[in-house]
Amino acid sequence: MPIAPSAAILDAWHVFSAAAEIGPGPYRSTLLLDTRLDYRRGTNGEVEVRRRDTGAALLVIERYGFAWTSLGSPPDDLFSIPEFYEPDRKNMSCGSLGVNVSAPRAVENFLDMGHFPYVHTGILGEEPHTEVKEYDVEISYERDEILATRCRFYQPRAALSADEGQDVEYIYRVPHPYCSVLYKSCPADESRLDVIGIFCQPMTEETIRAHLLQSMIDDENTITAMRRFQQTIFGQDKPILENQYPKRLPLDPRAETPIRADKSAIAYRRWLSQKGVNYGVIPQAA
Amino acid sequence: MITLYDFELSGNCYKLRLMMSILGVRYDIVPVDFYPGREHKSDWFLKLNPFGELPVLVDDGLVLRDSQAILVYLARKYDTTGKWFPVDDPALTAEIEIWHDFANRITGTASAARLTITMNYDFDLEKAQSGAHQLFRTMDEHLWFAEREGREWLCKADHPTTADIACFPYTALSEEGGISRQDYPAIRRWLDRVRRIEGFTAMSGVFPASRAREAS
Hints:
The complex is a heterodimer.
Chain A: H1 7-10, E1 14-18, E2 28-32, E3 35-41, E4 47-51, E5 57-58, E6 60-63, E7 66-69, E8 90-99, H2 103-111, H3 116-119, E9 136-140, E10 145-155, E11 166-176, E12 179-186, E13 189-204, E14 207-216, H4 223-242, E15 249-250, H5 263-275, E16 281-282
Parallel strand pairs in A: 15-16
Antiparallel strand pairs in A: 1-7, 2-3, 3-4, 4-5, 6-7, 8-14, 9-10, 10-11, 11-12, 12-13, 13-14
Chain B: E1 2-6, H1 11-23, E2 27-31, H2 43-48, E3 56-59, E4 62-65, H3 67-78, H4 90-119, H5 125-148, H6 162-172, H7 185-195, H8 211-215
Parallel strand pairs in B: 1-2
Antiparallel strand pairs in B: 1-3, 3-4
Helix pairs in contact in B: 1-3, 1-6, 4-5, 4-6, 5-7
């Protein structure tokens, strides 16, 4: 019997499909929080979603090229990514990829710079440049999100538009228990930042679909080539994610030993604990 | 010059990248947005391959499809040792063809399971997984007996052939389709041997052999 998600998850918006993949015609089906959903684009162009068990119609919003719904009472809007609406950006889904892992494990891996030289060798890192330098993390209670700033890492190929290695600056946001947005130095324009988002659809506690957003400044490369770059990286992460044990993220600070580089992960686990998230995690014993 | 129409996460495309890397053949890549773009079903791609399937390899104007057929082509044309697809021993050539067919069966099961889980394809997941397990049991047994007779590769030769390259990718990616290799120790040892072939290259989801072992 699946566990009942607490309010922090039940009342949140959750991604369930790339918007472009929802057409008119027969309903398509997916799983969200152990609940079977059927969805299609109605004749008026609006996305329709209903629960298969009760037949209830659910609320839908389309944001950042994806469709989001909620099984509870969601807030008025989703977290904001203002850069997405800048006219010269190339926005794209890089796919919605099924992964046998919990959503929090996937988010935490996304926040981790320590694995770059070992898992993304020659792209996002390479030996001997393995040090994660000191960076800042804050939990903003006002915005209800985690912010990691001043992250710097040497990357041989930070983006498809990069033709040489460079020290890349990162800013990470975690504005949703299962979503993270990354801003990184844009090789094509020093004054701006490329935006990469990972939006996890919790199908069950231990399986997700990872919906990948890229919002890039890049006049040179095609969408196909930029998608390929991101899929190559995520494809390298996938077996690492799927071999994590336990699959659910332990929130007890003593459960897994962190190092200094894991500062953002520590904040993330604490934040999930404080929000009372109980789904995809192993809650701290009371 | 060779051009490979390629999708990074495709095991059948990887087969050719692996073969060309081992043979030291240079090639260009044209990325095809198989997912989410479904570009392999687009008008321009269907003109190249009416079957709407990756990979496609173009060599000096010659357009080839079907990953196993292309393996044979690459081996016959570019392998100066003549070992990857030997034609002077009819029994061995036939044996290689048997494993090429086996590779297609692995694609039909293990790859189908992976597509279902990873890219939301609508295949019968349990059927695909149990089909793959059936094949892997056969393959594991075959490799186990081969090892007992002092052989390391799928076919009766003292060197790897295109059969090993053909069967490697979707076996190595099976866990992405929820197919564990825990019960197939001979397969696991064979996968490691393939990873140690000179010129081996990895893909997303397939790791190279550990460097620590190489250094020792």
